[in-house]
Backbone:
């Protein structure tokens, strides 16, 4: 690195070859490096594993002064600095893990011009002491990693990122490069506003991860489905299983171990030592499955994770994409598998409604949830839908590597079936959940049916042509379409919404995908 700098005009390619040991650039890297080295600002959107780091590391070596990298991930900073030092780059880190003496030494190096790259945690950078320090140093560029954290609407908002507006204010002439792996239209706009990137180009790489096979199945008995999925498709493979609650993490890990699948729990309630040990085993041993809450995974760089399984619905498509993106970073065939059911939609909605966020925030959150439910319910290619959400239109409408492409679901006109369901909810007073509605529809004489006299209603037994499992699928889809909504204050009672009227009048189309009895997992099994 030192040589690179003392040369009259070190070119990017030779630094790439000699310092990083890489033969060539990937995708837009070269263009980005040229742009930033020339002093330009930009926004870089690249999927995880796409090679974002080089986009600021190289210009930092090619420009005069030290590149300042803002990153919220302490573990990731440490790993990157270790790798850079090994390659002969003068890199250091400033964060809360350093002692006062260690930090002072780094600060002295920076001011003396002895650093090529300095990684700083955002809350550290914002201190008056650090800003004054940066004022005295020669700075090559600012790289703001995980830039989506500035977005209040994003799924990973970090308040300390808001303060980063100070960078364009205090250092307007130093080039800024913001990088993220997840950003929808709204988040992108916020990044541009807050980091002063108006007029700067965006470099958007394709978000497609062609080696990941997407699969979303109807939740029946989630632990059994998960065991079958691992045994049939990924025996002996390393994987991550995401659950929403700590208790479910523990239960699922225990169930897998009992089935002979080595699994370790990971959640914020575990002792820090146990957590670190489980993480190390997952990274260093072969074929370990980690069962985790979403606390796990940010900044974990394990290239051979063969599957990511969701037993609960994530909050948004961004979160789903980011979590599933931890599979197959080495480019080899991998799976993103999710089991989901009506209770997931109801639960997530309740969590949003009961949170104490502002109304606008709740509305955005519900919209994000609905987009994810749309992905889970679609009968079309999952990849096309997923990429479409990020504003990308793939060349082919069908990817050939998702469950819907591999075994297209049967879709039928479900107008009459939906009308029966809505009438049933209406006639029973919109006070009951899915289970009771199904009993009434199929004409089952339960204690409750007798108690409320629902066997005397005209809707009793009008849905006998479908079985219980099929009705569950119908209800989930009708809720997902928004014609029925679960009332969180009335224990999940299903109520008609405004749009239900159009269905009852026969004015609204309702297409339903058929629930093939337990054959979907099998049908898509192709041993690769
Ligand atoms: P991101 O930050 O986008 O998740 P990284 O910068 O960590 O991705 O890069 C992911 C992996 O790809 C790393 O192992 C890196 O060495 C590798 N990589 C990046 N650029 C190239 C390239 N031009 N050629 C080969 N490998 C690359
Ligand atoms: Zn597809």
Residues:
């Amino acid at each position: 690195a030192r040589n690179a700098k003392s040369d009259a005009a070190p070119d990017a390619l030779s630094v790439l070859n000699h310092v990083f040991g890489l033969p060539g650039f990937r995708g837009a890297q070269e263009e980005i490096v040229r742009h930033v080295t020339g002093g330009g600002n930009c926004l870089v959107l690249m999927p995880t594993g796409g090679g974002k780091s080089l986009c600021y590391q190289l210009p930092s070596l090619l420009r005069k002064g030290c590149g300042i990298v803002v990153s919220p991930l302490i573990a990731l900073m440490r790993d990157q600095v270790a790798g850079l030092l090994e390659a002969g780059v003068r890199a250091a880190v400033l964060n809360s893990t350093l002692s006062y003496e260690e930090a002072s030494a780094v600060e002295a190096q920076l001011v003396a011009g002895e650093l090529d790259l300095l990684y700083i945690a955002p809350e550290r950078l914002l201190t008056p002491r650090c800003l004054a320090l940066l004022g005295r140093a020669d700075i090559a560029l600012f790289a703001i990693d995980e830039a989506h954290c500035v977005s209040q609407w994003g799924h990973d908002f970090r308040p300390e990122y808001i303060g980063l507006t100070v960078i364009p204010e205090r250092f307007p002439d130093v080039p800024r490069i913001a990088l993220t792996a997840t950003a929808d239209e709204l988040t992108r706009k916020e990044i541009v506003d807050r980091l002063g990137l108006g007029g700067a180009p965006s470099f958007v790489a394709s978000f497609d991860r062609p080696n990941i096979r997407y699969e979303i199945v109807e939740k029946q008995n989630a632990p059994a489905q998960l065991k079958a999925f691992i045994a049939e498709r990924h025996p002996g493979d390393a994987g991550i299983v995401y659950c929403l609650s700590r208790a479910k993490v523990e239960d699922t890990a225990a169930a897998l171990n009992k089935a002979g699948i080595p699994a370790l729990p990971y959640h914020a309630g575990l002792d820090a030592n146990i957590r670190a040990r489980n993480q190390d085993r997952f990274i260093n041993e072969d074929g370990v499955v980690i069962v985790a809450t979403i606390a796990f995974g940010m900044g974990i760089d394990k290239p051979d994770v063969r599957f990511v399984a969701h037993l609960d619905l994530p909050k948004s498509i961004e979160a789903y994409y980011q979590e599933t993106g931890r599979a197959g970073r080495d480019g080899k065939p991998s799976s993103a598998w999710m089991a989901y059911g009506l209770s997931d939609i109801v639960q997530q909605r309740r969590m949003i409604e009961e949170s104490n966020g502002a109304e606008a925030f709740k509305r955005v959150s519900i919209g994000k949830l609905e987009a994810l439910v749309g992905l889970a319910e679609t009968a079309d290619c999952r990849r096309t839908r997923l990429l479409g959400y990020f504003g990308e239109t793939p060349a082919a409408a069908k990817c050939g590597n998702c469950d819907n492409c591999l075994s297209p679901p049967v879709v039928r006109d479900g107008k009459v079936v939906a009308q029966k369901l809505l009438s049933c909810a209406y006639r029973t007073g919109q006070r009951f959940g899915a289970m009771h509605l199904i009993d009434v529809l199929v004409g089952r004489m339960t204690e409750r049916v007798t108690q409320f006299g629902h066997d005397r209603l005209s809707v009793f037994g009008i849905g006998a042509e479908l079985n219980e499992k099929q009705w569950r699928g119908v209800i989930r889809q009708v809720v997902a379409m928004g014609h029925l909504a679960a009332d969180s204050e009335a224990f999940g009672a299903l109520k008609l919404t405004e749009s239900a009227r159009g269905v009852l009048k026969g004015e609204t189309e309702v297409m339903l995908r058929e629930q093939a009895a337990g054959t979907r997992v099998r049908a898509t099994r192709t041993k690769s």
Remarks:
- The pocket of zinc ion (ligand 2) is lined by residues 381-383, 398-399, 402, 404-405 (CB under 6 Å).
- The radius of gyration is 26 Å.
- The longest strand covers residues 212-218.
- Confidence is low (pLDDT under 50) at residues 1-8, 517-528.
